[in-house]
Structure formats: structure tokens, C-alpha cells
Design goal:
Blueprint lengths: L1 H45 L5 H83 L3 H49 L10 E5 L4 H7 L4 H10 L2 E3 L6 E5 L3 H17 L4 H30 L6 H9 L4 E2 L2 E2 H18 L4 H10 L14 H11 L4 H8 L11 H14 L8 H16 L4 E7 L4 E7 L5 H18 L7 E7 L8
Parallel strand pairs: 7-8
Antiparallel strand pairs: 1-3, 2-3, 4-5, 6-7
Helix pairs in contact: 1-2, 3-9, 5-7, 6-7, 7-8, 9-10, 9-13, 10-12, 10-13, 11-12, 12-13
Length: 506
């Protein structure tokens, strides 16, 4: 109420100030008018006698105008005074209303105080009576009640937590099944199993002799330049090209096809054609990479990453074409990210790049996931995408939500029926062979093939092998695996030597 009175007083002060200002303005106007009259009289005295009539008329007109202006200003001032008077009346009414409300509030306060005193007296009487009946003080009763409430609340809380955990677990399981099913259904693709050989058709069997050349010069030149084995057997009108590197095999296939079509087959011509075909394949690789990124709607990739993506066309993993696998994984990642409320474009980008470590220009010393992560970091990809690439085989810690999505979608693409030709029996046999190979060394107690055969853990006895011998043992096992086994990528050998002391207190 004090605030309202203050506001009312401020408003009255402002209105009074406005009235004073208007009155001052009016006085100034009157003074100005009188000064103008004096000026006119002086002008009349100065004028020539012959111009007295015209001057008087002009002065008369001017006087009439001044009078009219003065009358207009008086009317405006009267209107302003009228408005101010009305506002004063309204303000006085409001002040009176506020005063009436203050009086009413004071009465209500008094009534409330009386009621509070009355209730406090009743509560005091009831408290004394309850203490007498219960035989305990108020503090004791409060303490007992609080303890009971705490116990009840704890039990209810635990019950709610258990119910919510069970419900969340059920919902999460159902949602994950739904997301996986939806993702797989929306991204179905035909699977084509890659081979390690190519067949080049010949117009006739006489062409085989020309391909071999005098004393085998032509075939040796072609094999040397391309790094591909040419198998010329009894197969009618066909030559088989064998190589584990699909790029080299494709270069050899195209070169041989051009040589057979042209008919000129000699070492100099072979060298010329192979060089030309190698450039064509490189251009095709870059074009394939660009076309793939455009089809998937991925932009801003480094040119070297685009070239690596194009090379995937000529690579395979367990018989599955690597570019097809990468495209499928990218689409799966986009669908799953959308279902989970994440950025589908970033997920698609990570899915496309997750296997770039499988197509290096040089033989790597790192697992393909870590190599791919380093390549992505080198070409300025974002940290969460780099982490998704490096962590899709659990070879580095997952630090982003994209990483598990890429890992799951990579597994979905590779697990499709017909996607990869390696059967379970062969996979298990390869793991067993790895473990048995290491067990043959003296001092080895246990071996474990982990990471789908990408890593071999070797446990040695601490009393049989020292620390220096563990290093040499790791190198020996690695060399033996290289010489005797066939495997994709690389295998990491970790030799573990530990000492355990066990005693019993009896």
C-alpha cells in the first residue's frame, strides 16, 4: 500500500509540473505578442506617408493573424487544463480507493492475527493432551515418526527402482530389436562374392603361343610389370590371371585384353599398354570414389580419401567387395542414427570411411582400424568420426556415440547370408591353428586367439622364460605365422609373462 501512495504522489507532482510549464509557456507567448505589437507600431512610424494606407492594411492583417493565433493557443491551453483537471480527479479517486483498501487490509490482518492466536492456543492444548496420553514428549514423537517415514520411503524407493530398471531393460531390448530389424530391412543389398582369379577370353588357342612369346619373354614381361601370375593350361580359348591384389589383377586383365584385341604382343608393346592401363585404372579409381560420395550425399572429403574409397572397388574382405560393404555400412549407419536421434550425415560418413585402413598404398604395421583412424586424422576428419573408425574393432576406446553404431552396422553388413564366403568351420580352424602354432614353443603355457583372429595372446611360464626371451619369442611366432598361415590383414602377437606367489595361512 505504501508503494501505491508513493506512485500517486509522484503522479500528482508530475501533473503539477506539467501545469506550471504550460502556464510559463503561455506567459512567454503573451510577452512575445506584446513585443510584436511594439514592433509593428515602430514600423508604422517609419513608413512613408504615401504608403500609410498599404502599411495599415498589412498591419491590420498581421494583427488579426496574431490575434487568431493567440486565441488558438488559449483554446489549446484551456483544453490542456481541462485534461489535467480530469486526471487530477481520477488520481484523487484512485488514492481514495487505495486508502479504503488499506483500511480493509488492516482489518483482515487483525482478524488473521486473532485467528492465529486462537489456533496456536488450540494446538498447544492438543499437544499437551497428546503428550499426556502417549506418555512421550513432542521431540520423541517427531523422531519416531521421521524414522518410520524414512524406512517406508526407502522401501518404496527400492521397489520403484527395481520396477523401473526392469521396464527400462525390457523397453531397451525391444527398441534395439526394432532398430536393428528396421535398419536391416531398409538397406538390403545383393551380395557378390569376389574371387582371386580373372579369366580372359581368347579368340583362338593360337593366341596362347603369342602371349607366351619366344622363350617366354612376353609372359615374363607381363607378369613382371603387373605382378600377376598368368596360368595358361588346357582350358580352351582362355587364360587365367591369379593374384590376391585385385588392382594388379584388373590392370593385367585390361592390358591383356587390349593386347589380344590389338594383336601386337611383344615386350615393348606390353610395357606401353600396361603403363597406359595403369593410368586408366587410377583415373577410374578416382572417378569411382567421386561417384560413391555423390551417391551417398557426402561432401567435403579430402581428395586422397576419395581415391582410397575408389580403391575399395578392387579390394575384398573374405570375398565381400570392400566398396559395396562400405556403402552398405554407410546406409545402415544413417538409418540407425536417425532411429536413435543422432546426426545421420556424420554416421553415414563414418560408415563409409570405417575400412579405409584396408586399402593402404604401403603395407601397414597397424591394424586396419587404427590405420584408418590415423588416415582420417591426417586428412582433417572430425574427432568423433576418427574415433568411430578406430574403435569399430575395439582396438581403441569408444568416445562417441557414432562408434558403437559403426561397429554394429559393420557386423550386420558382414554377417549377411552370402556376404562372406568364409564358413564358421574354416574360421574356427584358423583360430585353432593360431593357438596350436604358438603352443608348440617351449615355455608356453596358454594361448588365446582374440579379436576374430587379429590378435594372439601367449602366456608363458615365468620360471621358464625371462623378459628378453619373451621379446624374441614374440618375433619368432610372428615370423612363423607369416610363413605358414594365410590370413586377412595382420595378426598382433602379445607375449605375457607373470609371476604369481601363492601361500596359505593355516
Amino acid at each position: 500500500m505504501d508503494a501505491l501512495l508513493t506512485v500517486a504522489v509522484v503522479v500528482l507532482v508530475i501533473l503539477a509540473a506539467v501545469i506550471v510549464v504550460q502556464r510559463v509557456k503561455y506567459k512567454n507567448l503573451v510577452l512575445q505578442t506584446e513585443q510584436s505589437k511594439k514592433d509593428l507600431i515602430e514600423k508604422e512610424a517609419i513608413l512613408q506617408k504615401e504608403a500609410m494606407i498599404k502599411a495599415k492594411e498589412a498591419l491590420h492583417i498581421e494583427r488579426e493573424q496574431l490575434n487568431e493565433d493567440e486565441r488558438e493557443r488559449r483554446r489549446e491551453f484551456a483544453a490542456i487544463e481541462n485534461k489535467l483537471s480530469k486526471r487530477e480527479d481520477i488520481l484523487e479517486d484512485k488514492i481514495q480507493e487505495v486508502s479504503d483498501k488499506e483500511l480493509e487490509l488492516d482489518k483482515l490482518k487483525d482478524q488473521l492475527i486473532e485467528k492465529e492466536d486462537f489456533l496456536a492456543e488450540i494446538v498447544q492444548k492438543q499437544t499437551v493432551e497428546l503428550e499426556r496420553i502417549a506418555g512421550m514428549s513432542t521431540e520423541e514423537a517427531k523422531r519416531m515418526l521421521l524414522e518410520q517415514l524414512k524406512s517406508d520411503l526407502a522401501q518404496e524407493q527400492m521397489q520403484l527402482i527395481r520396477e523401473n530398471e526392469a521396464k527400462i531393460r525390457e523397453d531397451a531390448l525391444e527398441k534395439s530389436k526394432e532398430i536393428l530389424t528396421t535398419t536391416m530391412q531398409r538397406c538390403m543389398m545383393e551380395q557378390v562374392v569376389e574371387s582371386t582369379v580373372s579369366v580372359v577370353s581368347l579368340p583362338n588357342d593360337e593366341m596362347k603361343g603369342r602371349i607366351i612369346g619366344r622363350e617366354g619373354r612376353n609372359i615374363r614381361t607381363l607378369e613382371t610389370l603387373t605382378g600377376v601370375d598368368l596360368i595358361i593350361d588346357d582350358t580352351p580359348e582362355a587364360v587365367v590371371l591369379s593374384a590376391f591384389d585385385p588392382v594388379r589383377r584388373e590392370i593385367a586383365r585390361l592390358a591383356l585384353h587390349q593386347l589380344v584385341t590389338d594383336g601386337r604382343i611383344h615386350p615393348a608393346r606390353i610395357e606401353e599398354v600396361v603403363s597406359k592401363v595403369r593410368k586408366q585404372v587410377e583415373e577410374e579409381i578416382i572417378e569411382t570414389g567421386k561417384r560413391t560420395t555423390i551417391d551417398l550425399g557426402i561432401h567435403g572429403l579430402h581428395p586422397e580419401l576419395i581415391r582410397i574409397i575408389g580403391k575399395m572397388k578392387y579390394r575384398s574382405s573374405y570375398g565381400q567387395n570392400l566398396l559395396q560393404h562400405a556403402r552398405e555400412t554407410a546406409n545402415l549407419c544413417a538409418v540407425m542414427a536417425s532411429e536413435l536421434g543422432l546426426n545421420p550425415k556424420k554416421a553415414k560418413r563414418a560408415g563409409l570411411l570405417h575400412d579405409i585402413g584396408k586399402v593402404p598404398d604401403e603395407e601397414p604395421e597397424l591394424p586396419h582400424a587404427l590405420l584408418g583412424m590415423k588416415l582420417a586424422e591426417k586428412y582433417k576428419e572430425k574427432p568423433d568420426i576418427c574415433n568411430a573408425i578406430g574403435a569399430h574393432h575395439d582396438e581403441t576406446e569408444m568416445t562417441s556415440l557414432l562408434a558403437p553404431i559403426v561397429q554394429v552396422c559393420d557386423a550386420i553388413s558382414g554377417a549377411r547370408p552370402g556376404a562372406r564366403r568364409e564358413i564358421v568351420e574354416a574360421y574356427i580352424k584358423r583360430l585353432n591353428d593360431l593357438e596350436q602354432l604358438a603352443m608348440a614353443y617351449p615355455g608356453v603355457t596358454k594361448t588365446y586367439a582374440i579379436q576374430a583372429g587379429r590378435e594372439l595372446r601367449v602366456i608363458v611360464g615365468a620360471d621358464k622364460i625371462d623378459d628378453k626371451q619373451t621379446e624374441s619369442l614374440s618375433g619368432e611366432i610372428a615370423k612363423k605365422i607369416q610363413d605358414e598361415m594365410t590370413y586377412p590383414g595382420q595378426v598382433k602377437i602379445t607375449v605375457i609373462r607373470e609371476t604369481r606367489a601363492v601361500s596359505f595361512a593355516k
